[in-house]
Design goal:
Belongs to the Nre family. This protein is of the alpha+beta class. The protein is built from 14 helices and 14 strands. α7 packs across α8 and α8 packs parallel to α9 (about 310-325).
Length: about 400
């Protein structure tokens, strides 16, 4: 049975859940739209931006950029604070994103050519508190419900005619210093991170073209990966100086339909993410395949082509854990995506899911075999398929057969 096609959906109509998912992703989007459409059905939107901005990547170096403003006043920070969504459901996230109206305009990534509107957007990006803002749109914003379970949650948008901050943004002195100083982007990111600034605040500054010597707008998706990669590389250098952990440590957490199993090994640093989209999940086929990316102490070669942004998000969470403990380990992460993850919400849930996993230890073991036996109990996909793909375990597999690892 195909998991998603027009004939199946026509028969099901969202009532019978023939695709095997716990809820219909198409109907869920319609429910979200119905809940917010009356509040955004106007050309002038006044409210408190969380603050939030968006920079697209299509057409680079001429990109879409715009402020995100909800028709709500007051403390709206929860609408764009991914690392604080630990108790949010997928439906909550869809609703948050649907309330943020984007007034989009075209801009060259070279911010030296910026005008008044871009300057206002940059001021908004620097604020650490919601800012009362007003956008004037060419037409009423449209929130489309795409007939695809693969489409990420997209908020309502329309062409921007004007944007104005109606109150002064609250900008930290540290931000003023970092933005105005002649610092490379990596230096600026680490200064802010080590000063305790929220990771997504730093991402917003980078997207708005406020960091680096040659300041340029950076598409939001690229900014997320860039910031997580830069911080991760710095933390790896620190972790490499620390002593090894003493035992095999196993961690587990399930978050928004994503199952995370993290195995720390008492050996010199390496990191690997093994990922499977189970049958019935968004990208799961009849025969789920294990994908993976790997690095040793020298770092990954190029970009994580198979697991993409998930790689950098998961790596950062675990490196933060090791840095806090001042310990070093070899890291093996198993990610299983279940049918409960019925709508893609972004790599923030991987960042948060692995972070929560590191606060939930399952046990400590003296041997790898004992640890892997326990790993197999936590996963739905057969462990042997993971082991066959694992770069970290290839050397060990040459010394022992897979049957040795799986023997109970």
């Amino acid at each position: 049975m195909q998991l998603f096609n027009s004939k199946l959906c026509a028969v099901c109509k969202g009532r019978k859940l023939l695709c095997g998912r716990p809820t219909c992703p198409i109907l869920e989007r319609f429910r979200v739209v119905r809940g917010v459409e009356k509040r955004i059905n106007k050309r002038e939107i006044f409210g408190s931006s969380p603050p939030a901005i968006f920079v697209g990547e299509f057409g680079y170096p001429k990109v879409r950029i715009g402020p995100l403003v909800p028709p709500i006043e007051g403390n709206t920070s929860y609408l764009d604070s991914p690392l604080k969504w630990e108790n949010a459901s997928i439906r909550d996230v869809l609703r948050y994103r649907s309330l943020l109206v984007m007034g989009e305009t075209k801009a060259n990534v070279d911010v030296k050519r910026s005008g008044r509107i871009l300057s206002e957007i940059q001021e908004l990006a620097m604020s650490i508190r919601p800012v009362d803002s007003e956008i004037l749109l060419k037409r009423k914003p449209i929130l489309k419900v795409l007939p695809s379970e693969f489409a990420p949650p997209i908020g309502p948008k329309a062409e921007l005619l004007d944007f104005e901050l109606t109150e002064n943004p609250r900008i930290p002195r540290k931000t003023d210093y970092v933005v105005s100083d002649e610092l490379k982007a990596e230096q600026a990111i680490m200064k802010l991170y080590n000063s305790g600034f929220d990771e997504y605040y730093i991402i917003r500054l980078l997207s708005a073209g406020l960091l680096g010597i040659q300041k340029k707008l950076v598409p939001t998706r690229w900014s997320i990966t860039a910031v997580q990669d830069i911080i991760g590389k710095r933390l790896r250098r620190e972790v490499l100086r620390y002593e090894l952990i003493n035992e095999f440590e196993l961690y587990f957490y399930e978050f928004l339909g994503n199952r995370y199993v993290v195995l720390l090994m008492p050996e010199s640093y390496a990191f690997e993410l093994l990922e499977v989209w189970l049958k019935g999940s968004l990208f799961g086929g009849e025969e789920p395949q294990v994908i993976h990316d790997f690095e040793d102490w020298r770092g990954i070669k190029g970009y994580a082509n198979q697991t993409a942004g998930a790689y950098y998000a998961a790596r950062l969470s675990i490196l933060e854990h090791l840095r806090k403990r001042r310990r070093q380990a070899k890291i093996l992460v198993f990610r299983e995506v279940t049918p409960k993850y019925y709508a893609p919400v972004g790599v923030w849930q991987i960042r948060l899911g692995t972070k929560k996993a590191m606060n939930n230890i399952i046990g400590k073991f003296q041997t790898l075999q004992e640890a892997l036996n326990e790993v197999g109990k936590l996963l739905e996909h057969p462990l042997e398929y993971y082991l066959k793909r694992s770069e970290i375990l290839k050397v060990r597999a040459k010394q022992r057969t897979l049957d040795d690892f799986l023997r109970l």
